[in-house]
Amino acid sequence: MTDHPDLPADAARETLSVGMVGYAFMGAAHSQAWRNAPRFFDLPLRLRMRAVAGRNPDLVAAAAARLGWESTETSWRSLIDRDDVDLVDICTPGDTHAEIAIAALAAGKHVLCEKPLANSVEEAEAMVAAAERARPAGVRAMVGFTYRRVPAIALARRLVADGRLGRIHHVRAQYLQDWIVDPEAPLSWRLDKDKAGSGALGDIGAHIVDLAQFITGDAIASVSGRLETFVTERPLPADHHTGLSGAADTARRGPVTVDDAAAFIARFRGGALGVFEATRFALGRKNAIRIEVNGSRGSLAFDFEDMNVLHFHDGDDDAATGGFRRILATEAEHPYMAAWWPPGHLIGYEHSFTHQVVDLVNDLAAGGDPSPSFADGLQVQRVLAAVETSSDSATWQDVTP
Amino acid sequence: MTDHPDLPADAARETLSVGMVGYAFMGAAHSQAWRNAPRFFDLPLRLRMRAVAGRNPDLVAAAAARLGWESTETSWRSLIDRDDVDLVDICTPGDTHAEIAIAALAAGKHVLCEKPLANSVEEAEAMVAAAERARPAGVRAMVGFTYRRVPAIALARRLVADGRLGRIHHVRAQYLQDWIVDPEAPLSWRLDKDKAGSGALGDIGAHIVDLAQFITGDAIASVSGRLETFVTERPLPADHHTGLSGAADTARRGPVTVDDAAAFIARFRGGALGVFEATRFALGRKNAIRIEVNGSRGSLAFDFEDMNVLHFHDGDDDAATGGFRRILATEAEHPYMAAWWPPGHLIGYEHSFTHQVVDLVNDLAAGGDPSPSFADGLQVQRVLAAVETSSDSATWQDVTP
Amino acid sequence: MTDHPDLPADAARETLSVGMVGYAFMGAAHSQAWRNAPRFFDLPLRLRMRAVAGRNPDLVAAAAARLGWESTETSWRSLIDRDDVDLVDICTPGDTHAEIAIAALAAGKHVLCEKPLANSVEEAEAMVAAAERARPAGVRAMVGFTYRRVPAIALARRLVADGRLGRIHHVRAQYLQDWIVDPEAPLSWRLDKDKAGSGALGDIGAHIVDLAQFITGDAIASVSGRLETFVTERPLPADHHTGLSGAADTARRGPVTVDDAAAFIARFRGGALGVFEATRFALGRKNAIRIEVNGSRGSLAFDFEDMNVLHFHDGDDDAATGGFRRILATEAEHPYMAAWWPPGHLIGYEHSFTHQVVDLVNDLAAGGDPSPSFADGLQVQRVLAAVETSSDSATWQDVTP
Amino acid sequence: MTDHPDLPADAARETLSVGMVGYAFMGAAHSQAWRNAPRFFDLPLRLRMRAVAGRNPDLVAAAAARLGWESTETSWRSLIDRDDVDLVDICTPGDTHAEIAIAALAAGKHVLCEKPLANSVEEAEAMVAAAERARPAGVRAMVGFTYRRVPAIALARRLVADGRLGRIHHVRAQYLQDWIVDPEAPLSWRLDKDKAGSGALGDIGAHIVDLAQFITGDAIASVSGRLETFVTERPLPADHHTGLSGAADTARRGPVTVDDAAAFIARFRGGALGVFEATRFALGRKNAIRIEVNGSRGSLAFDFEDMNVLHFHDGDDDAATGGFRRILATEAEHPYMAAWWPPGHLIGYEHSFTHQVVDLVNDLAAGGDPSPSFADGLQVQRVLAAVETSSDSATWQDVTP
């Protein structure tokens, strides 16, 4: 009998100690990633999940035990103050991102910040400035647009980068959910502008803006959009909850201060025409992130409800046998997949978070700049802001460069 | 041995004599409908395909023989002048619709006019006025938005009308083709603003505007749109051709004067948010008319590339067994289908034209008003005009009521 | 004004005069084909739909008018006796095929005979012998396995013939319907062994046997099968009906004497392993003819419920971008499709019958042998007979060569 | 700062200490399950991953570190001898299952044994006897047919158990892979009858036999089958490898002693007709476990390549709106899913292993009998044996009850 440590111990490997702020839905997904990354990928750094921070001592203690963190803190400031934390992983609502990230960077901690980068362009700009100030000292910052790490999406990006699509003419992207179609669904923090910044636009629209720019390698230059709030008043939650659901207090109602849905058309710098739609009112669509890109040489289509698949039309195929290929992106030749199971054995939602950790850790070890950067997050924020302004003014808006 | 006439001869049935103008793609589809309708449906009128008109006597004679018309005329005016023609079926390019239709209506002929109703709002208004003037004398006018008669689409309309979708929140509609992605595709009449009026917007965008309004039973109130011409100059056609394809004269080039693609967002009068896109540059998509409607009780999705299927999500299904139903609209219970083949035996593109004839003939026999009316066609035209104005002015535009 | 005949009149073209026996479901489909073929295809012979035969004078007269036949006969013998009939098209139940076909061939008429060729191997052998006797005089015989003429299926055959699949390892084919799942569905002639010969096996199993052999270009060598009758007694039909449905006389019941479902495994001469299933009890499947073929270089998959599509996996694609291609078989490059509509405009069930007429007429004009021949029909019959024997004896059975 | 243990520490909870034998593909999947189960599910026992056993000390040490096991053993016997191991998880090739499982049970250890239960009916019978001997002492045994724990599959079982399908008429099941289509793929242990017992039949056919019996709640009574080996000789592996792939030693060749593909038809005790096919030669299909069940009231269809989806046709839906529902089995109302992510966030292959651990641990804590039992595994083995005998004898075979 021989005893072994819990994690791959390589004396030659340096340790990256992680502290996480927040432990709800995103915290659970990030924890799973920190735990799993070294089990499936050969990482250049040894990971330690040092501490998780949350205000309620009992809840954070329970979360630490469940999610696998060594210790707890009851404030994000004390987490940042710890010498044994190298990286701060921010999984709190958007209104807190700027303050935590800027403090962490100033304290010399790497930062992984959940999307949206912030609730406003101003906050996001401050965060980019903080990241730039910290960078010379080797401190790195990354924003968590995890869907980039879905293998089928990463493959899509690779095909565009390889020129397989040619000149891009069209991007159409939708993020469709349905969790508040019921007008009696309670007024959660995600429907409160002060907490969430915006509604469908910032929460899920942000993802398709990032994906569209990531896959095409291009940026949105101008937009015309419209925000809608179909249900303007809702019952208050029965108690303070932070998640996606919960009971309603039917006696008291409050105003919905964010958009239920957002739609906009866009022009990309390279001339492509984009059509975007984000909604929480698409009954029957649960997490349908759909993106289709049409170029002069090829086309791509993706739907997260079938996330292991990328559809690819190669315009070079002859007319009689051409057609969209259903690529099951589970081969060793596909991004990230050599580390997982044999071909045809699917991966799920949380694996993208693991890939995010893998890429981040590799970049940190190599001294590279992890991607997407805070500047990428800011660019997304600027697109969202332009959509809001456009909706308010009923005019096209340029995205501030 | 007993001899029988070629068509169902019912002495008690009156005859409707039809004259058609134009015999290209649309003329072939309409002829197939006039020939087939009485073979599969029990019509209240006996149909005669009296005459087809076209400028070139040889070509029109060949077309008459091929398509089944009894005689030919070399001008639409002489067709209208014939006493033995009760209905004029207009299958020519859009720039001729107004003149022919107004003359035919003035001559007391019923009119079936291919879409778009006209190339401008002004022409369309004049046509509506002509239809109103003719109506008291029992003369009827119809515009040919045939996709309404795809059984799956007609079923979609029925479900909305029956309240199965509840309040409509979203309409997303796309009409995707790819036939001019190649920058060397020749400059056909469909790329010439004088002939075609507009490009993708009027040619195929018109269809999804009509379908969206038909299925929801609502009208588009305002729009913000963008037209794009990706390839601004093309080789001239090697010879005068009128169809969709043909060889190019690579030595000479001319300007493309219409849009290659159009996208717009819209608000419906009832509060729904619409997203529309029409393009001839979606490589790999051949005739993908896609429309999805999300309501508070149910959702619908359709794609013409699988035209016998309607996807329907019934929000009343319990959570564990709910999901989009793939309705194969080939049952006798589905619109129009009792006349065709057993369940599971699909119909094709041209059957919708047959259904259009069936509905039109039934309406004429009953003295009813065929639908879609010229006023419906005008409303579509006004939406398209608002999109163009919006694209030019970079502002939202109301659709003139 | 110029008068034109009803059909393309080319004085240089000879006329092929057709007589049809039977006018139910198959008769309607065949009539549509005879009417349509010259409208869309340039045929070397001029077609005349001379006469249709049926026992009931009133019904056959109504059918003639509706389906477009010039005259009627009340017996198939008198039809065959007519000098002005060149080809006899047999659309009656299987128990009459042999007698009619043999008589027609002996009278020097070409024969197009609906599938199954006959209700027994003996009858089918006699028909093949009759066809062979008639052949030296230029008389031709064809059996109507129309699904071969679905463009996607014809494309599948072409890909195999071109070597794109390599060595064939697997064929899996299903023909799934559900029209008698209800145990109270009446006992139609199709459930009567004397009339129909067999149940699901002969009616629909015959089609997938033919398709499997056609696509692979190989023949089934041996089988092991099982027939099942899930509902052994049913109410008698309320009246004599010949179609697929009708009311039941709930007071009287009779035995079901054919199989409700048939399944068998097979070895092809070339070494492929086949799995076949035909059933009328697959609830929710209406006319699902599914066939998948796996070879050493490529794979194919087809489902008639999406009949314009062929799925093709090209094993030569690189691992990262390989996947089943959804080929929308509506391009001019696809079999038969240049004659119809632009790409993306689907065709339906009945178009395959038109293609059958086109191929038959071309073969007759060229003096060629139309395919599938009566010998092909006999081979299918032998496979079905081997399945029945196997089911009875619980052993593998060779297919008599 | 507060320190926390690595796993949820509940003093009131007893500990279940696990030892695993084997650490290749299955060992990695099982380890992931042992690690994850307590992170997402509230388990009645505290889990410890005590030790992993393997012959090579260096490799097993590396595996322990990577997979999260506290210690190592270099023989399965020493693992079984340890007092601090309560449960032995067997992840080795099938030829070792019987010996290890019987010894572990005799030593009073619970056993989780990967499928197939054994390489022969005799071994499986001995294992069942050993499980029965151990049971009175509270020792439990389970065989790892993990696909039962795919939520969509568990939902399928629930629907059948609830009577939503009515009387079952048809089961058609396929397990399609393509990893040895290339005749130059090396002769791995999975192609060696001594190691693997059988080829496609036992490796993947076992899964669809189990799934068919599980979903229907019925048992296969008799079979007629055929095994095929398309490539009878292959290059030897370049070195000893145990996984699915590896380089070939092109100079030396050896015989393939197992089946490449297996097909069989079956009768269930309840009268249903089954059609089964398992192959490693279905080019383009990677891990396509497809099962369709048709009953008198409803139908089900599943494909593992889209594993989060169950298609369900409810025969009680009215004819106009009926159709297969695409149920995205990611709702809290679906089996196991409340523990994971919000609706629409997919899970992957390995999650079924986690569910297996959850069910097993719950059963152990409650003193229940985990399912599938060794007797269930034996029944599958008997079906496979009957298929082999049938293939050898070319006759139908009853499955020994």
Structural class of the helices, strands and pairings of chain A? Answer: alpha/beta
**N/C terminus separation of chain A:** 62 Å
How many helices of chain A?
10
Rg of chain A is 21 Å
InterPro entries (chains A, B, C, D): Gfo/Idh/MocA-like_OxRdtase_N, Gfo/Idh/MocA_oxidrdct_glycsds, GFO_IDH_MocA-like_dom, NAD(P)-bd_dom_sf
Protein name (chains A, B, C, D): Gfo/Idh/MocA family protein
Keywords (chains A, B, C, D): Oxidoreductase
Question: Nutshell version of this structure?
Answer:
Chain A is an alpha/beta fold and 401 residues long. The first copy, chain A, contains 10 helices and 18 strands.
Q: Can you describe what's shown?
A:
Chain A has 401 residues and is α/β, with parallel strands linked by helices. Chain A has 2 domains: 14-144, Rossmann fold (3-Layer(aba) Sandwich); 149-347, Dihydrodipicolinate Reductase, domain 2. Chain A is 31% helix and 27% strand. Chain A is built from 10 helices and 18 strands. In chain A, helix 5 runs antiparallel to helix 10 (374-393). Chains in contact: A-B, A-C, A-D, B-C, B-D, C-D. At the A-D interface, strand 1, helix 1, helix 2 and strand 4 of A face strand 1, helix 1, helix 2 and strand 4 of D. Chains A, B, C, D: Residues 155-300 form the GFO/IDH/MocA-like oxidoreductase domain. Chains A, B, C, D: Keywords: Oxidoreductase. Chains A, B, C, D: Residues 17-134 form the Gfo/Idh/MocA-like oxidoreductase N-terminal domain. Chains A, B, C, D: InterPro entries: Gfo/Idh/MocA-like_OxRdtase_N, Gfo/Idh/MocA_oxidrdct_glycsds, GFO_IDH_MocA-like_dom, NAD(P)-bd_dom_sf.
